[in-house]
Amino acid sequence: MSLFVTAPFIGSASLHVSDILHFDTLSSRIFFELRVPRVMFAFFAGVILSLSGLLFQSLFRNALMTPYTLGISSGAVLGAGLAIKLGMASLAFGIAAISMFGFFGAMLTIFLLITLAGFIRGEQSISLLLLGIALSLFYTSCLMIIFYLGDSMQNDMLLRFTMGSLSVVSWESPAFVGVASLVLFAVMYAYRFELQLISISDESARLKGVDTKHLTLILLVVSSVAIAILVSISGPIGFIGLIVPHIVAKLYPSSINRRILKTAFFGGFFLVFCDMLVRMMLTQSELPIGIVTSIIGGPFFIYLIIRGRI
Amino acid sequence: MIRCESLTCKYDDKIILDDISLHIKHHLTLLGSNGSGKSTLAKAMCNLIEYKGRIYIDDKNIKDIRAKELAKLITYIPTKLQVYDPYITVYEFILLGRFVYKESFFDYSKEDYEEVDNALTLLSCEHLKNHNISSLSSGETQLILIAQALTQKSKIIIFDEPTANLDPYNSKIIAQHIKKLKESLGVILITHDLHLASYIDSPTLFIADKRAVYYEDREKFFNEDTLKKLYGVTFKALMVSYE
After folding, report:
1. How far is CA B18 from the centre of its chain?
2. Which spans in B81-214 are helix H?
3. Which end of chain B lies in a sparser environment, N or C, as judged by fewer CB atoms within 10 Å?
4. In this predicted model, what pLDDT tens digit does every residue of A217-244 receive, in sequence order?
5. CB pairs under 8 A between A and B
6. What is the pLDDT at residue A110?
7. What is the pLDDT of residues A145-172, one digit of tens each?
8. A interface mutation test: which of B66, B92, B99 has the most A CBs within 10 A?
9. Closest by Cβ to B87, choosing from A206, A207, A253
10. Angle, CA of B95, A201 and A183, to the nearest 5°
11. ipTM greater than 0.95
């Protein structure tokens, strides 16, 4: 809680409690229109990323499964890249075109993954992971073409987006992402025992009357929409979905149904904390959060592979 | 109890079982060489795999029974248990047997917990209840799987090679439990362990070359000539006693 209270005070402009209590002052506006929405956004983003990680890992029984490793975030980046390249950075239907294209990019990736997964014979989860990696590489190449063809202003915008950022300028984005994270949490909690069964094995879930194909589809769609909403606003923030469920499992070694709430809170606070560090490190400008999480996440990814937790 | 009519199962394009019809009255022991289709038959009975033909349990086509209701009629205990969730405890695992009785979205009831306690007592494995499933030995795992099936209260339990990875002592414990369960439940036993098959003493179905041969009488199956013909191996007197 103390993290929540102190987090909005930290940043390039230092704020004091007495300042923000006077409305219409600059400090007050920075606090309520920038800092507080940002902390809320970071929290909900952390919830979505870590819950999706936990969900994907349980559904596919593989510790490396996250929306990030499956290429869903890359899909969003490519979508946003297209919007920028096509000069559609302005608003369309009240929502930024970048966000809309990002959303469709992420959803298209999910659709591709689900369709292609239908053709997979044999070990589903490993093949799906490889599919995700293949898609990511393909997207990256497409993005390179966009970079190559883009002018420097477009490229700068795109580069900013690919780095992932939590800066928001209004209450709209935290509200969107907040609703998405609540829905994701509610659905996962409602199906907590089904998830527990699926995370043992597909067969054991079906022997208890769970329609695993149908349920997997529902859960994937819900989490993908949440992820798509988030990534279309923030850009890719990698490895949270990989790290947080693992740390929570180490801290509270219990079955998945009892880790959903803990993972959500820990994920939220973890990203608020990372974001606070980012704002403390540099005072002139700020390091994009996606870079920070990737720098922590990369070595962690290697650690998971070496420890054989895949 | 279970009736299969013109049952055909394929895996990819390979036919595993070809046009099998059979009627299981109470119990059955399924024998046959590796890959002969014993587990396939068992999984078809639980509607876990695609098949052609019809399977009836208590005169109801299993395709017409809701999945949770079917789970109350029949369940399948695998040889080995692969668990991704490394932190699920024995107690939580057995509790999942009550899933079919639980209201959707809600927690388990007091009665469900009592059923788990009963199963733990019946199989004398209370001491394991707080252990992680992944830390159990093969014998313990088999016991816990049986405990889960018991809390599920299915009328028929299929055991798929329950003694496959067990030492003689643990095999004996499992064998005695299965024998006891035969008094109150339908038991379908898949095994290569002829000592076990002989001890459990149910009518025998031998599967070979995609077809099945039924032996109602014990004597007709457990004699040297039949065994030599079916397995292609000479059998001397059986050695282990599960009594």
Report:
1. 22
2. 90-95, 110-122, 138-152, 168-181, 194-200
3. C
4. 899 889 988 998 898 888 889 889 988 9
5. 68
6. 86
7. 998 988 888 888 888 888 888 887 678 8
8. B99
9. A253
10. 80
11. no
- Among A61, A125, A208, A213, the residue to mutate for chain B (most B Cβ within 10 A): A208
Which domains are assigned to chain A?
2-150+165-306 (1.10.3470.10)
The correct answer on CATH 3.40.50.300 for the domain covering B2-80+153-231 is yes
Residue with tokens 């509200």: A175
CA distance B4 to chain A (A): 19
- Nearest by Cα to A142 from A72, A229, A97, A75: A75
Chain A contact present for B49, CB below 8 A? no
Cα-based distances in Å from B214 to A1, B23, B31, B198? 69, 10, 10, 15
Sequence spans of domains, chain B: 2-80+153-231
At A91, list the tokens.
């608003």
Q: Is A172 helix (H, G, I), strand (E, B) or coil?
A: helix
Which residues in chain A are contacts of B144 at CB distance < 8 A?
Answer: none
> Which of A 200-239 lie inside 8 A of B, CB atoms?
200-201, 203-204, 206-211
The two tokens of residue A38 are 């940002």
Contact criterion met (CB below 8 Å) for A252 and A262: yes
Task: Report which secondary-structure segment, H or E, holds B57.
Answer: strand B52-57
B31 to each of A39, A212, A213, B35, how far by Cα in Å? 64, 31, 32, 11
Does B105 touch chain A if contact means CB atoms closer than 8 Å? yes
The residues near B10 (Cβ < 8 Å, ≥ 6 apart) are B16, B50
Q: How far is A207 from chain B (nearest CA, A)?
A: 6
Torsion B42-B44-B47-B50 (CA) sign: positive
Tens of pLDDT, residues A246-277: 999 988 988 999 999 999 999 999 999 998 88
Size of chain A in residues: 310
